[in-house]
Design goal:
With 448 residues, this protein is an alpha/beta fold. It folds into 2 domains: 177 residues, Response regulator (Rossmann fold, 3-Layer(aba) Sandwich); 183 residues, 3-Layer(aba) Sandwich (Rossmann fold), CATH 3.40.50. The longest helix is centred in the N-terminal third of the chain and has 30 residues. The chain is globular, with a radius of gyration of 22 Å.
C-alpha cells in the first residue's frame, strides 16, 4: 500500500466517521427533543430573541411578518468545503442583511450542512418549519438534489444557488438562477480546445462521484455532441453515464472510458488517475485536456499527482472549484502551468460599479465566490423592492418573470421564461504569477 493510499484511507475514514456521528447526533436530537412537538413559532422567537412586548410575534407560513422577511440558506460553513459556504454567506450578508423592503427588515438565517446531502435535507426541513420566504445561495449540486424537492413541495423559491447543475435549469418558476450553467462553462472550454487543435478523442474527464460530477460529465458529452463528433467518441461517455444512472459507485474495471472518479469529501485521487492511464494504455489515445467537476483541494491534489508522473495534460476546472483556494494549493505543490478555470462573475479587477461596490464592502473576504453571493443578494433585493403592492410568493415570482435591468454593469434578464439571468463565462489560465485572463497566444503554448 502506497503512502498516499494510507493517508487517503485514514483521512477518508476519519471524515466518514465524523460526518456520520454528526448526522446521527442531529437526527437523535431532532427526534428526541421536546421542541419537535412545539409550535415552530416559539422556537423561532427563542432563536431571534424576540422581545415579549414586540407585536411581531407570529411567523407566517410564507416567512413574512409585519416587521421581517425571513430568508434561509443552507450551505457548508464547516468541513472540507467551508470556504465556499462562508464566502457565499459573506456576499449575501453584505448585500441583504438588515436591508428594508416596504418597511420590513430582511433577516438571513444560515444553516450548516457540511456539504453533506442528508444534513442539507434535515436543515432545509427545519428552516421550512420555522418559516422562510425563500431559500437563497445554497452551495452544491448533491445537496440541491436533496433539498429542491422539499422546496418544491412547500412552494418555496430557490434563488441564486451556487451550482451550475442542470438540476436547477428545469422550467420551474420556483428556480431562479443568477449564474451560467456548468454546461455553458464546459462547452466554452471544449470549443476552445477543439479550436486549438485538440482532437475530440483526446478530451477526458475527472469528476466527483455524485450528482455534481454527473452534471459535469453530461455537460462534456453534450458539448461533444454540439461539436458534431463521431459516435465512437460519445459511446464511452454513454456507457459510463448509464452505469452511474443505475446507482453504481466507483469505477467498473470492465468499463473502459476516458473518465476518472473520486468520492465526495475525500482526498482520493489515485484511482481516478489510474483509470485515465488505463484508458490511454488500452486505446493508444493520450488525454490532452482533462475536464474536471470537483473541489479545489481534490483537483489540486490530482493535478499535482499527474504532473509528478510526467503528464502533459491540460486540466480545466469549473467555477465551483474555488479559484483562490485552488491557486493557493497549486502554488504549495509547485505547479505553474497547464491549468485553466472558468468563472461566471466579472473579473475581480473589473472597474464596473457592482464589482467595486462588492470589493469595498467585503474587503479581505472579497473573492469570486463572495462576489457571486453579493450579486445574487443585490439582484434579489432589486426584485423585492420593485414588487408593487403586497409581498408574497405570487407577487415575487411574477416580478421575477418580468425583471430585466442593469445591476451596476451586469445585465440581469429573466424575461422570455429564462431560468437564469446571466450567460457570462470567462476563462482564466494558471501562470507563475497566478490565474490570468486567457489570451489567444496562450493556447498555442498550453497545448504543446
Amino acid at each position: 500500500m502506497t503512502v498516499e493510499k494510507k493517508i487517503d484511507k485514514q483521512q477518508n475514514l476519519s471524515l466518514t466517521i465524523l460526518v456520520g456521528c454528526m448526522g446521527f447526533m442531529m437526527i437523535c436530537t431532532s427526534a428526541c427533543s421536546p421542541n419537535r412537538l412545539r409550535n415552530p413559532t416559539t422556537d423561532v422567537q427563542l432563536n431571534e430573541n424576540v422581545d415579549s412586548k414586540n407585536s411581531d410575534h407570529t411567523i407566517s407560513q410564507a416567512g413574512i411578518t409585519k416587521q421581517t422577511i425571513r430568508i434561509g440558506s443552507v450551505l457548508a460553513l464547516e468541513g472540507q468545503e467551508e470556504i465556499l459556504g462562508n464566502r457565499m454567506k459573506s456576499g449575501l450578508q453584505a448585500a441583504l442583511d438588515g436591508q428594508l423592503v416596504k418597511e420590513k427588515k430582511i433577516k438571513l438565517i444560515f444553516e450548516n450542512d457540511y456539504y453533506e446531502p442528508l444534513v442539507a435535507r434535515q436543515k432545509t426541513q427545519q428552516l421550512i418549519e420555522s418559516g422562510i420566504f425563500f431559500m437563497i445561495g445554497n452551495v452544491g449540486t448533491p445537496t440541491a438534489k436533496q433539498t429542491l424537492p422539499i422546496l418544491q413541495q412547500n412552494n418555496i423559491p430557490a434563488v441564486g444557488f451556487f451550482t451550475g447543475s442542470q438540476l436547477l435549469r428545469s422550467p420551474s418558476e420556483l428556480i431562479i438562477n443568477y449564474r451560467a450553467s456548468y454546461a455553458q462553462e464546459i462547452e466554452t472550454v471544449v470549443k476552445m480546445a477543439l479550436n486549438a487543435g485538440v482532437k475530440s478523442s483526446e478530451i477526458c474527464a475527472y469528476v466527483q462521484d455524485d450528482s455534481y460530477g454527473m452534471s459535469g460529465l453530461k455537460a462534456v458529452r453534450d458539448a461533444l455532441v454540439k461539436a458534431q463528433v463521431e459516435e465512437k467518441t460519445l459511446a464511452p461517455y454513454d456507457q459510463v453515464l448509464e452505469y452511474k444512472e443505475k446507482g453504481n459507485q466507483g469505477n467498473d474495471n470492465s468499463l473502459l472510458s476516458p473518465v476518472g472518479f473520486y468520492p465526495r469529501n475525500t482526498p482520493y485521487v489515485k484511482e481516478g488517475y489510474n483509470s485515465l492511464k488505463q484508458w490511454e494504455k488500452n486505446t493508444g489515445i493520450n488525454c490532452r485536456l482533462v475536464i474536471t467537476a470537483g473541489t479545489a483541494s481534490n483537483i489540486a491534489r490530482f493535478i499535482n499527482l499527474a504532473q509528478g508522473e510526467g503528464e502533459h495534460w491540460v486540466v480545466s476546472s469549473l467555477s465551483f472549484t474555488h479559484k483562490e483556494e485552488l491557486q493557493f494549493n497549486l502554488e504549495e505543490y509547485g505547479v505553474t502551468d497547464k491549468v485553466i478555470i472558468t468563472e461566471v462573475v466579472p473579473s475581480l479587477d473589473s472597474d464596473i460599479p457592482i464589482v467595486q461596490e462588492a470589493k469595498s464592502k467585503l474587503k479581505s473576504e472579497f473573492d469570486h465566490v463572495s462576489l457571486e453571493g453579493y450579486i445574487v443578494g443585490k439582484m434579489t433585493l432589486k426584485i423585492l423592492k420593485t414588487i408593487p403592492g403586497e409581498i408574497n410568493h405570487a407577487s415575487f415570482l411574477k416580478q421575477v418573470a418580468i425583471s430585466k435591468f442593469d445591476l451596476g454593469g451586469i445585465a440581469i434578464d429573466f424575461t422570455q421564461n429564462r431560468t437564469q439571468s446571466s450567460d457570462l463565462v470567462l476563462i482564466n489560465i494558471f501562470t507563475p504569477q497566478g490565474f490570468q485572463d486567457l489570451k489567444k497566444d496562450m493556447l498555442r503554448d498550453m497545448f504543446q
